[in-house]
Amino acid sequence: MANPFHIAFPVDDLDAARAFYGTVLGCPEGRSTDTWIDFDLYGHQVVTHLIPDACHSAAGKGSGAVDGHNVPIPHFGVVLDMDDWKALADRLRAHDIAFGMEPTIRFAGLPGEQATMFFCDPAGNALEFKAFADMTQLFTKQ
Questions:
Q1: SS (H, E, C) 64-82
Q2: Residue closest to 65 by CA, chosen among 75, 56, 73
Q3: What is the rounded distance in angstroms from the CA atom of residue 88 to the CA atom of residue 59?
Q4: Superfamily of domain 62-137
C-alpha cells in the first residue's frame, strides 16, 4: 500500500475498543498507552483515544440518503476486495455484531455497483466496509 490512511477518534472504553478492533475485526495492535491504542486496519492506522465524554451514538448524529438507504454520517471504513469483504461479513456475524445496514449490494447493475455494510463500534462510531467486483469502478460516475 503506497499511502496508508490515518484516522483518530474517541472511544469511552479502551478495553472494549481493544476487544472490538483487535478481536472482532482482527486488527493487529500497534503502539498504545493508557489513553490510546493504534490498530492496523487493512494497512491503515486507526487510533482509538480514550475521551469518555466525547462518545456518541451514530444514530444521534446525522444521516445521508444513498441508494434509498439512510447511512450514518460521519462514518469511516475500508474498501476491500470482494473475498475479504465476504470474510469480514462472516466474521462480524460470528461475533453477533448488529448491522446498521446488513451486507448488501447497492447500485446494482449501475456503474459503481458495490457491496456494502454498516455497523458501529462499542463507542458508537459508525463504520462502513465496501467492495467492488471491479475496483476500477471505485470513482466511476453514474
A1: EEECCEEEEECCECCEECH
A2: 73
A3: 23
A4: 2,3-Dihydroxybiphenyl 1,2-Dioxygenase, domain 1 (3.10.180.10)
**The dihedral formed by the CA atoms of 111, 5, 124 and 12, expressed in degrees to the nearest 10:** 180
Read off the C-alpha cell for 59: 444514530
Q: C-alpha cell of 40?
A: 492496523
State residue 35's pLDDT score.
96
Domain ranges, ordered by start, for the chain: 6-51, 62-137
DSSP annotation of 132: -
Q: What does DSSP say about strands 6-11 and 44-50: parallel, antiparallel, or unpaired?
A: parallel
pLDDT beneath 70: ranges in the chain: 1, 55-61, 67, 142
Q: Which of 1, 5, 28, 11 is nearest to 120 (CA)?
A: 11
